Amino acid sequence: MSKEKNRKRCIAVFVLMGMLITLISRSAFAGNAPQLLVETKNSLLVFSIGGNGKLYQSYFGQKPGHATDYALLQSTRHEAYIGAGMGDLFEPAIRVIHADGNPSLDLVYVSHKTEKKGDDLSLTSIRLKDPKYPVEVLLHFAAYFKDDVIKTWTEIRHQEKKPLTLSNYASSMLHFEASKYWLSQFDGDYMTEMRMKESQLTTGIKVLDSKLGTRAHMYRAPAFFLSFNKPSDENNGELIAGTLAWSGNFQCTFEIDQQNSLRVINGMNPYASEYKLPAGKTFETPAFIFTYSNKGKGQASRNLHRWARQYEVLDGDQPRLTLLNNWEATHMDFNENVLVELFEGAKQLGVDLFLLDDGWFGNKYPRDGDKTALGDWQVDKKKLPSGLGHLVKEAGNRNLKFGIWLEPEMISPKSELYEQHPDWILKLPNREESYSRNQLVLDLINPKVQDFVFNLLNDLLTENPDIAFIKWDCNRMLTNTYSPFLKENQGNLFIDYTKSLYQVMERLRKKYPHLPIMLCAGGGGRVDYGGLKYFSEFWPSDNTDGLERVFIQWGYLNFFPSLTVSSHVTSMGKQSLKFRTDVAMMGKLGYDIRVKNLSPDEIRFSNAAVQTYKRISEVIWFGDLYRLVSPYEENRAVLMYVNEARNKAVLFSYLLNFRRKEYMGKVLLSGLDPDKRYKIKEINLLPDAVSTHPDNGKSYTGDYLMKVGLNLSPGKISPLSSAVFELVME
Ligand code: GLA
Residue limits of the Glycosyl hydrolase family 36 N-terminal domain (predicted)? Predict the structure, then answer.
């Protein structure tokens, strides 16, 4: 047979096979719709393929006990990932404008595959495509079985002749059908991060979003609880906890339609971000992460914590370093002698590391205030004539590791970098430069700027290989949103900025996979799981007042595990040192204080506190968190951590600003083994103090502690006081 005949025959066979497959799949659409299942231990997400070839979300919620019942979940009411411009008139998941100007997208099911990636993880990918335009969308669902967590994201690609314009691009679209919906959101401002507010959703749209660009989370975190039918509490109620893994502008949209169905769309914020996608390139959205619980918010948080420690946070299963930071102790006013004095202080505290904060760099324009030197990352020769190596050595002589502060994405108008590279800066043509904290943002989208940032860290770590920790700050949002590098594609700016940050972090992590780096953005301006893939912990707030921190840390602990929540003892706030220390111990303990201003007893207390923390930190970092009394409900906060073996627990009790004779009821503990006995010991006492707590030294069964509980505030109690208890199985 000639080559040509052979080729024709092959084509014919191929076409016939294609027709056959189409027929088989079409006939499969008749009657029972084929289903795709995304399963975790307790939750089930069901998709069905309708007779029209479209993908529908038929169910999400508690997993029925009998797999044979799954077939009953056939609803084709809610299209899974809705393209704008076709029949649906509510918020779309995706909106594109084709190269020919057609602003619609019709998505039909093409194929799917599910891969088992071990006992705990399975990955389902569903391919959808437009029958008329060469555009395809891939929906990905990573199901983490034991923790009931689903991570979902989307890929968009096309083969059109010109770039496709994307104006909506959800990471996920989910549909719910309940009688009522309750949303808990977490927002605030600089110094008041993560204030929890809960409200019932009503018909129409509620949007939680950020348009701040860099430091996007300052006013609001991309995280929420969504309860169904009635508000959930810690132990009761059906809900999801959701959070977007994205360090830039985000948008979470909750829309109730005329039939009381709720559509939840999460993703990057489309605000000012019409994205031009060239043919052949893949546009990948960040992941939306959610967990289902029918046992209240506590279970949802524990699911996220466990999952995050195992899968998402950099070295989430590894210990953290305790440290002394010098920001609140000295601000930028220090020299070598002062630092050496602080090293001595760190040694007295017994922490692992000294962290040198802002103010160590700049020569032509020294960093003595916040108007200069960002970008000029050379040691200030006047302040620190012997260089960083000397400091690292001096710290080492005191058995301390050394860490350093950087703000790599920023530039001061008064800097040598500004003089050398005015085109490396995000700023609008024909407009005045607009500053925040007297600084501008580098155009990180420019590969040369990415190299600059990579080299800054790489050179620093090459010259000082003993640097053991970085604090990566980002102290302003975007107001000059124009990238000289992007030219006519300014709509890509917000998205490409964050993607560029991740690219730099990828490069850094290849070379320095385990170096602990703290994610900081003027306090908690950037806290999310997109960042925590590269960062070992975050700075929750510049507000370190002990009372305020109870609320702020409480807020973050809803979504992020304790070993990521940097919690420092400082001199802010009027509470006792013991109170502030007990508060810092609920997260990742550190200090930011002038040790030489502490009394000998305070130093003794703090040193013992660090030792105690090191002894119990395994339970705090890797244990399960149980929030027992919320500071939003009473004038106190009580929480506990229980280790996996359930033979050790740590209980924190904080009395806040309560009124005279305010009654504090017994607290029911949680997470213990009901059949085992636990001995209770009050720890972290002041030097020479003995516990006066009536339960100190006593043993009770887990059952008793969880059903009858403990009176944590017996006798005369004072506001702003606290106690820490250790429970050890006998
Ligand atoms: C931000 C950080 C602080 C400190 C200063 C330094 O405000 O949140 O912890 O590092 O910057 O300028």
Answer: 74-277
Banded model confidence at residue 146, pLDDT cuts 50, 70, 90: very high
Ligand 1 centroid to residue 111 C-alpha, Å? 49
Between the CA of 522 and the centroid of ligand 1 the distance, in Å, is 5
pLDDT one-digit tens code per residue, 362-390: 999 999 999 999 999 999 999 999 999 99
Ligand 1 atom 12 nearest Cα: 358
Listed in order, strand segments (DSSP E) in 347-392 are 353-356
CA angle 37, 43, 48 (to 5 degrees): 30
Superfamily of domain 323-421+442-475+512-624: Aldolase class I (3.20.20.70)
Question: Active-site residues: which are they?
Answer: 473, 542
Residue 615 structure tokens: 């002894």
CA of 269 to the centre of ligand 1 (A): 27
Q: What percent of the chain has pLDDT over 70?
A: 96
Work out the pLDDT band at 83, boundaries 50, 70, 90: very high
Pocket test for ligand 1, best of 215, 404, 520 (most atoms within 8 A of CB): 520
Domain ranges of the chain: 1-31, 32-312, 323-421+442-475+512-624, 628-729
pLDDT per residue as tens digits for the range 676-709: 999 999 999 999 999 999 999 999 999 999 999 9
Tell me if 365 sits within 8 A of 350, measured CB to CB.
Answer: no
Mean pLDDT, the chain, integer? 95
Ligand 1: residue of 406, 542, 593 to mutate (most ligand atoms within 8 A of CB) is: 542
32: confidence class by pLDDT, cuts 50, 70, 90:
low
User: What is the CATH code of the structural domain delimited by 628-729?
Assistant: 2.60.40.1180
CA-closest candidate to residue 114, choices 140, 153, 136, 138? 140
State how far the Cα of 516 lies from the Cα of 519, in Å rounded to an integer.
10
Separation in Å, CA 425 to CA 142, 446, 489: 38, 9, 16
Q: Residue 719 region, left (φ>0) first, then alpha (ψ -120 to 50), else beta?
A: beta
Q: Are 679 and 730 in contact (CB under 8 A)?
A: yes
- Separation of CA 409 and ligand 1 centre (Å): 14
- 32-312 under CATH 2.70.98.60, yes or no: yes
Tell me which residue has its CA closest to atom 11 in ligand 1. 522
Say what the pLDDT of residue 658 is: 82
Q: What value does the mean pLDDT take over residues 386-404?
A: 98
Contacting residues for 595 by C-beta, under 8 A, at least 6 apart: 324, 342, 344, 345, 346, 348, 349, 603, 606
Rg (CA), the chain: 28
